[in-house]
Amino acid sequence: MSKRTIAPVCADVERFKEETGKHLKFREMYEIVGLIGVGGQGKVFCAVKKATNEQVALKRIESHPEDDFGAGIGIVAIREIMLQGSCNHPNVLGLRQFMQMGAVNVLELDLMPTTLQAKLDHLKDRGATTLGEKLSHHYTRQIMDGVAYLHSQHIMHRDLNPKNMLLSEDHSVLKLSDFGSARKPSVMVNTPARGTTIVYFRAIETLLGEETYGPKVDVWGAGVTLAMMLQMRLLFNGSTDWENLLLMFQIFGTPTEATWPGVTRLANYSEHFPRWGPHLELGQLDKDTPMVKACWMMLTPDPSQRPSAQWLARLLRRPEYSWPEAEPEAEPKAEPEEDVEGSVCSFCGRPVTPPSTPAA
């Protein structure tokens, strides 16, 4: 259920077979099964590796002659190949190899049959109003483990949303995918954020015009995703950046220098903004539960007060985030982290307590 449909016969499959069939090595390695879907930079196909009989995903990178280096590979695709190829983590989609066959460029990836978005849509269609605390925790912990790893490798994903979160056959493993918008923080100075992610998941600081934003934009995207899991609907469902900014103000309160030092200096801030106070009573998100508390932490408007991915990854392994029936998982390597003891979310007023150090 809620799997991406594999289309065995269609024009895209026949074209891909024709393109790759001209190369003997490719024919010897793979048997194309069908089309899975369309990614940010190209079409994704299911194939079987003949040597091992293992199913894998093959992503055909689209060529953009006006933006390539004369080899049919666009700069965005090259960035995706370089960044994703440097990653090795169980919650980040693995790039197994890259093949260039003339104008055809193919990535071999781990096969993940569905997405978190497809799972949420399927459950919502069946009348579900929440994914539940346990399952929301199960996926959010993997999201934060993956994001914490990316940040430890100095990579910002910048496009975190349920469509880019892939699930395994049994829906137990989640992996982050689609690195077309990813960047190294060192090249983020004065890099506009518009278009880096779909409108519903853009961090509030980017909507306000912050151009030197940091990795915590990924924490915001993960927080909006968690809110979606908890209530089966978008938290910010405006059709434009302006509409979503106003929705954020209605929930968190219109930011001021008292609640967010420096906010009035952001390019899109206006003294004429409507003035709202915080209003956090939002259905499923009004409950006093561990995952709701984690959600509001991740959605702290002031990025300097928003917890880092490493901190949250450790937080989600504390005892209050454990369920008796949950299967044990290996602890992540501890990362150097800021001390947040005694701090309080400036908008919701909830204390931010530090997690205990994971056991060795």
Q: Which structural class matches the secondary elements?
A: alpha+beta
Strand order of the largest sheet: 1-2-3-5-4
Helicity, as a percent range:
25-40%
Number of domains: 2
Tally of DSSP helical segments? 10
Radius of gyration: 21 Å
Short description:
The chain is α+β, with helices and mostly antiparallel strands and 360 residues long. The protein is built from ten helices and ten strands.
Main features:
14% strand, Transferase(Phosphotransferase), domain 1, 360 residues, 3-stranded antiparallel β-sheet, Phosphorylase Kinase, domain 1
Fold blueprint:
Layout: H1 11-20, H2 24-29, E1 30-38, E2 42-49, E3 54-61, H3 75-85, E4 95-101, E5 104-109, E6 114-115, H4 116-125, H5 133-152, E7 165-167, E8 174-176, H6 204-207, H7 216-231, H8 241-252, H9 290-298, H10 309-315, E9 343-344, E10 351-352
Question: Your description of this structure?
Answer:
- The protein is α+β, with helices and mostly antiparallel strands.
- It has two domains: 11-109, Phosphorylase Kinase, domain 1; 115-352, Transferase(Phosphotransferase), domain 1 (Orthogonal Bundle).
- The protein has ten helices and ten strands.
- A five-stranded antiparallel β-sheet has the order 1-2-3-5-4, with helices on both faces.
- The relative contact order is 0.10.
- Mean pLDDT is 82; it is low at 325-360.
